[in-house]
Design brief:
The protein has 272 residues and is mostly helical. Helix content is 68%, strand content 0%. The two termini are 35 Å apart.
């Protein structure tokens, strides 16, 4: 039985990876079917995809920093594979699965996963609010204050001490996301209101994260994005831009997920 255990573990891991890949592939097929028929500037989808890949890798780096204090391919692989579970009904299975693998006490596990979500949420709102304010919507400038939240929560020990140090990584991640969103929208409607598009994309992403009942934020992000930019674009252009960005995101996720197939597994629990 002891000899068979490693083989069973490897088989379970392979099955889990295959399941994650299948989930993303199914979502991709559905998104392609739902995509509105519009002409796209395909050349702009290349920088959109590259920026989305950077966003995805930086999000994984944020998780690795929380887990180990440094970038490791093993921690990144864990994030890539568990992230696909966000598409399952309920929208909570990605963070729940990371609680299971985080290591440490129950409180430490929960605070690590909370730090990941708080860091990403704050970064999206800071950059989203800043970009909207720069586009002329000054009322959104107050969201920049969200940059202080990880440090405040770490100070009262709601989040781990490492949490504030990850904010820079998450800000870089959402700067890449903003670039990708602008390129995706421009592929549909041309270069128009890039700061407003970047800001709306960040705030919409944050809304999708908060509304956990929407698996992967699907629907919520698109509605918020279209609502924030209503009147600035032609009929159907915003919905087409949102769906195009969704497709680019799924393509990037598939690429990174496949590339992580041979990443090593994490063997040690986090320290500190």
């Amino acid at each position: 039985m002891a000899r068979a255990r490693p083989q069973l573990i490897r088989a379970a891991r392979a099955a889990g990876f295959a399941a994650a890949l299948a989930i993303v592939a199914i979502v991709a097929i559905k998104a392609v079917r739902d995509a509105p028929p519009r002409r796209l500037d395909w050349a702009l989808l290349i920088p959109a995809l590259l920026a989305t890949l950077a966003w995805w890798v930086l999000l994984a780096r944020g998780w690795a920093l929380l887990m180990s204090g440094a970038w490791t391919r093993a921690d990144a692989a864990t994030w890539y594979r568990t992230q696909a579970l966000r598409y399952l009904p309920g929208g909570i299975w990605a963070p729940v699965s990371r609680v299971a693998v985080a290591g440490g006490s129950a409180r430490e596990r929960l605070s690590t996963v909370a730090a990941e979500n708080v860091g990403a949420l704050c970064a999206a709102l800071v950059l989203g609010g800043g970009a909207l304010a720069a586009s002329g919507r000054i009322a959104w400038l107050g969201l920049i204050a969200m940059a202080a939240l990880p440090a405040l929560l770490a100070r009262v020990r709601v989040l781990p001490a490492r949490a504030p140090a990850t904010l820079g990584t998450y800000l870089a991640a959402f700067a890449a996301y903003a670039v990708a969103s602008v390129c995706a929208q421009a592929a549909v409607s041309g270069w128009h209101e890039p700061l407003a598009v970047a800001g709306a994309a960040g705030v919409a992403w944050a809304a999708g994260l908060v509304v956990i009942v929407a698996p992967g934020g699907i629907g919520v992000r698109e509605v918020v994005y279209v609502g924030l930019l209503a009147g600035a674009f032609g009929d159907g252009e915003l919905a087409a831009g949102a769906v195009t960005m969704r497709l680019v995101t799924i393509a990037a996720e598939l690429i990174v997920l496949v590339a992580s197939a041979r990443f090593p597994r994490r063997r040690e629990s986090p320290t500190g």
